[in-house]
Amino acid sequence: MARKSLGNIRRAFAPWADPAATPLVQFEAVTRRFGDITAVSDLTLALYPGEFHALLGPSGCGKTTLMRMLAGFETPDSGRILLEGQDLAGTPPHLRPTNMMFQSYALFPHMSVFDNIAFGLRQQGLAREAIAARVAEMLALVKLEGFAARRPDQLSGGQKQRVALARALARRPKVLLLDEPLGALDRKLREETQYELMDLQAELGLTFLMVTHDQDEAMAMADRISVMERGRIAQVGAPEEIYEMPANRYVAEFVGDINVFEGIVEEIKGEIIALGGPGGSMILDDPNPTVDLGQKVNVAIRPEKLSITLEEPPQPTNKVKGEIWDIGYLGDFTMVQVKLDGEAGQLVKVALPNRSRRAERPIAWEDRVWLSWDVEAGILLRG
Amino acid sequence: MNRLRTPHLLALVFGIAFLYLPILVLVLYSFNASRLVTVWGGFSTRWYAALLQNQALLDAAWLSLKVALVSASLATILGLLAALALARFGRFAGRTLFAGMIAAPLVMPEVITGLALLLLFVGLDAERGFWTVTFAHVTLTACFAAIVIQARLSTLDRSLEEAAQDLGATPLRVFFAITLPMIAPAILAGWLLAFTLSLDDLVLASFTSGPGATTLPMRIYSSVRLGVTPEINAASTLLIGLVATVVVLASLLIKRDALARD
Question: Which residues of A are less than 8 Å from B166 in CB distance?
């Protein structure tokens, strides 16, 4: 097959693609209102055993409410939530086989680290020795051996986060709920912890449901991401799908940077669409061209998919002319803003990786340049 | 902190003197060797010794202490329940009315409350004495306990209770294992406030007490009508000392608890 697809980067783990797989958690047409505000609106989603799922969205999109409904702290106004096929309605939080790591960690300040981790085990009525053994195992898991006697106020932020994680994992929940798990950590620690969490999840084979507003966090950690918008799911998919094949403009803009070009459909040939636009003509490759001739559409192009050249590129289409407007050096790459020729003077972002340390700057302010891109780079935005 | 400038300092000194000079004079004269209240006859602790011989005064002090202990405990339990209802039950019907009615005794004239309670006890044909005074004090002090405890509950991180529930604790266990230890300082502070309010109450006790049940403030008040003796000064000084200690303790508790949470 000549056409490139996302298949080559799709992970081996994809039970959601298998119609025979049984989901662990099912949200079925779940709605939750607070007064006039609909926090979660007719939402359906299935989580599979062993999946690391991220609910991604801005604050107020309903992601936390959705998770709290699974934990039992909120009750759906309508719809069902199933765990292993069992309807959870009427099951109070303390009887649900889920555990949650709270954003504030919610460590009990009047208890030692040991007692914090043992709290859930004591509710199960485990024997003293069994509890001690499990707490020791959990402390080893989060690399906090020797901290059992400390009080929460004697721990650093990162250590508190680990204790909270150990406490939530101690009861071996069927689903671990993570509410902004890395939100309170500084950048360096966040990256480390991110990979530790992923390792832990893979090692324990647990199902994780994470709420986050940070797209990098969701992209790096999750098997699948649900991008949420005002109580609904805008798109569910693997990070690559969300980024490279956003379902609509909201998803494209929320996850990563985009440039949007307007165009009018002039020709449709199989999966290839030809557009005429203010900057010139474009050709793009769309697997599902549900557009009509003459229709006005938006095409999104990620900044790193654009090339800058001083000479006019040989290709007949997918190129525009402009002037360097701004250059922002960001270390790992340089973000260049190019002002396109024409009345609108649209600003386009281009990301240039800084591959070598002392490259001659090929471009400078006010240079006249050409931007060009591949046939596959353009994303046809619907809605 | 800003440095105090002269006018501010003057105002402060005047204000404090206005509030505390009469008490200071009373305390000083309790150490007066002379029997005459207005003439300083040298330092002496004889009136404190004489106090120990005054059985009527000692009985009154003991009664006051018992009333304060029992009424403060009852008031704290009631106050805790009211505070929980206000802070944890969400927006139930009649919540605003309930909140207002809990705070009402704060501003209700004590004479009115006292009269109303007297009429109630007479109507119920209750024998007036220890229990009537105690219940009267509960009606006065429960609101103070409720307000102190509710203030703490409203700042308590809800996710602590949710975390405990999430880890398998029943609501009752959450209350005893998490909520109660977290708000314990506020409960104690509320109890101490209720205790001191009961200890120095004269108005309610006068209305609701009966023969043979005279509290310390009542005894002091009736003695003063026969003439102020240095002995009464001594008794008052002890009472002031006790109340001051308890109030300072309560405010320290609240402050330390607030600091620990920062």
Answer: 71, 93-94, 98-100, 168
